[in-house]
Amino acid sequence: MLEAALREYSKGNPAPVKAALAAALEILGASSRPGELTPIWNVDKDWVWALGRQGINRVKKLLTEIVSVNGWVDAQYSLSADNRLHELVKELRWVESKVREDEDAFQHGPFQIIRMPGVSRAGMDGALTALDSATEALSRKFPQVLYGKIFVTPTLPKATSVAQYTNDKDVIYLSLKAKNTIGDVFSLIHEFGHRYQHKFWTDQESRMAFMLLSTSEAYETVTVTPEEKAKWADELIRQLEARRENKPGIPNSPGLDSYMDALIQGAGTYFKITKLLRDAVEAGPAGYKTFKEGFLQLGPWSYHTQKVVQKPIHVTPYGATAWTENFSEAFAMYNLGKELPEPIKKIMDKLV
């Protein structure tokens, strides 16, 4: 289309070229949004992301050139624009050879399989067998993730990956190199785990719990009994009495010291206790009873120390890179019947 339009452009008629460039943008699914100085353009066709990193960059460069040269095409013929348009013809031929539409798909189980250039039906048997194994494992507990388009491609944006899921398109890309091995099936289920996170994991409580397990340390929790609280009140009163009588100060017992350190972090209760102490100092011995009653009424009845009892849980080394990756690793392990740390397994059990 662009080649025929170039002949008209050489005669001073830019309209066919403008139409051809608009058609090229449509093929790429190009869209723009406002930028600080000029619009920011993006491609939105899911087949583009099956071209690998080099192919994606080539398409983006082509998009930039289409938008740029379109601004040069006007009523007056420009040799520079003409030369750039001829270069565009070559790149558009390359793009047209890569385009894949929904009607190019064939059904395989619950999926619509789309073969990218360089993928033959016979050559993709290994990848489809891996997909079948992943499907069988997922169908027992998470069948809701088994749907949609899967592009089988010789190249993925991340060259070392077996599969990749894109949140914005809800599409899975499967490498032609995938085989029916435990490692490749694991990686494929991992990507379905990202789909589960993005489309189905709506319970915010369990999401937060998993995120905290993956990213935060857990500290020792100490529960305070009424008897301990009463002993600490008496201990504080003895300190007040020693101060009133100008005797050497009495240090806190380890239990009271730990409790007061924890209260300082929260500040609110600590300030209430210090006010009770000030009031008792002003009132003298007559105020000790009031202090003890007030101290016993204040919480908390449990507090955290600085002792770490559990570090962040990462089910694999890769799970340490992000909590969302940790979930997808756990998702794969869970569906393949592999052992998981108990706190992680409890969350996974609740999701089924």
3D structure, described in words:
- Helices cover 54% and strands 12% of the residues.
- With 352 residues, it is of the alpha/beta class.
- The strands form three sheets. Strands 3-4-5-7-6 form a five-stranded mixed sheet, covered by helices on one side.
- Helix 1 runs antiparallel to helix 2, helix 1 packs antiparallel against helix 4 and helix 7 packs across helix 12.
Which terms would index this structure?
single chain, 352 residues, alpha/beta, Zincin-like, 4 domains, five-stranded mixed β-sheet, two-stranded antiparallel ribbon, 13 helices, 12% strand, elongated
List the helices and strands and how they pair.
Elements lengths: L1 H9 L4 H14 L2 E3 L6 E3 L9 H19 L8 H20 L7 E3 L2 E5 L9 H15 L8 E6 L9 E4 L4 E5 L6 H19 L3 H12 L2 E6 L2 H19 L9 H13 L1 H16 L4 H10 L4 E9 L12 H13 L6 H10 L1
Parallel strand pairs: 4-5, 5-7
Antiparallel strand pairs: 1-2, 3-4, 6-7, 8-9
Helix pairs in contact: 1-2, 1-4, 2-3, 3-4, 5-6, 6-12, 7-12, 7-13, 8-11, 9-10, 10-11
